[in-house]
Specification:
The structure is a single chain. By secondary structure, the chain is α/β, with parallel strands linked by helices. Helices cover 43% and strands 16% of the residues. It has a seven-stranded mixed beta sheet with strand order 1-9-8-2-5-3-4, with helices on both faces. Helix 4 crosses helix 5. The protein starts with 12 loop residues before the first helix and ends in a 21-residue tail after the last helix.
């Protein structure tokens, strides 16, 4: 499955991450952006695997062979969004020109008070989601993240915003514990945000067509949604250059997923294919925002048997049955 991202070391290491934080906080965003060029050069020269996989993914998304200039733009875009985390998570949202689309439907879901699942991806910036918290401070946002994968980035974000860090739900917990944490957040009426495009080692996956080729997507987030019967929306925070972002919300299921046992496998496959189609749509709109710097399609590996591993691992709505198929609901 496409879990090679787990083995990739953190780009630049702790020193680079804390350096960019220090420059950004003390020198300002405009000054710090000058350092994006040497950072881009570092990745182009030193990170062969990321350079190769960037070229391969961009070639699929752009529909033509990607050039070295495309790869440089790809890396520069990624570095720019990492820098912007310093300011977005530090509460300096006024620095950015964020155009929000589809937020009225999300407000309607949240105003019911039952909690909402918000499925995001490694396309663009998930941190720009903080804009809606500024506009509606009564909302509580809980983010499900794997703290174990990127310890340097985790420590950086902890330092930037302890309040946000305290609300993170750790995706590396075992399945039952993770499910209980998400259910508790939902009972409190929270917006629960998960990244659902990356698979985890040994977790169940489902094949979907993505840019004309089969790719593996995780099953666990969809099982969580089916068990908890929560409204479900998608979010895409697309970086448009400079200080501009588009934050797009789409209602995916307004009253929770229904996966009757007899049709579970086919409905799951259709749901994930539908999600893959929306992800592909937005990746075409912002191709340099695709921040999965590994072989996402993993054409040299056989996919794990699709849905069956996790089908019976969900928490029963009434019986309270739990299994290990819910681990890793979100990537790092």
């Amino acid at each position: 499955m496409n879990s090679g991202w787990k083995q990739r070391r953190e780009g630049g290491g702790r020193f680079a991450l804390w350096l960019i934080r220090g420059i950004g906080r003390h020198g300002g965003r405009a000054f710090a952006r000058l350092f994006l060029y040497p950072i881009t050069g570092y990745f182009l020269l030193r990170r062969t695997a990321e350079r190769r996989d960037s070229r391969a993914s961009l070639s699929r998304i752009l529909g033509r062979p990607a050039t070295l200039g495309d790869v440089a733009r790809h890396i520069h875009t990624f570095a720019a969004t990492i820098l912007d985390r310093v300011f977005l998570l530090g509460g300096e949202i006024e620095r950015f020109d964020v155009t929000v689309h589809g937020v009225a439907q999300l407000h309607a879901q949240l105003d019911r008070g039952q909690g909402v699942l918000l499925f995001g991806s490694h396309l663009g910036s998930f941190e720009v989601l903080r804009v809606i918290a500024r506009k509606r401070p009564d909302y509580r946002i809980r983010v499900v993240l794997d703290k174990a994968h990127n310890p340097a980035m985790t420590q950086l974000l902890d330092a930037l915003s302890p309040e946000i860090a305290a609300g993170v739900i750790d995706a590396s917990q075992d399945g039952p514990t993770l499910m209980l944490a998400i259910k508790q957040a939902a009972d409190e009426g929270a917006l629960i945000a998960l990244l659902v495009d990356r698979t985890q080692p040994d977790a169940a996956t489902q094949t979907a067509q993505f840019f004309g080729a089969p790719a593996q997507f995780p099953v666990a987030p969809w099982m969580i949604a089916a068990v908890l019967k929560l409204p479900l929306s998608l979010a895409f925070g697309l970086y448009r250059g400079g200080n501009r972002y588009d934050l797009v919300f789409e209602t995916f299921e307004d009253h929770g997923l229904d996966l009757p046992r007899a049709q579970r496998a086919t409905r799951m496959a259709a749901l994930i294919q539908r999600y893959a189609g929306r992800l592909e749509h937005y990746a075409r709109l912002a191709p340099y925002n695709w921040f999965n710097f590994y072989d996402f399609w993993n054409s040299n590996e056989q996919p794990q048997p699709a849905f069956e591993v996790a089908a019976d691992a969900a928490v029963g709505a009434d019986a309270g049955r739990r299994g290990d198929g819910l681990g890793g609901a979100a990537g790092g």
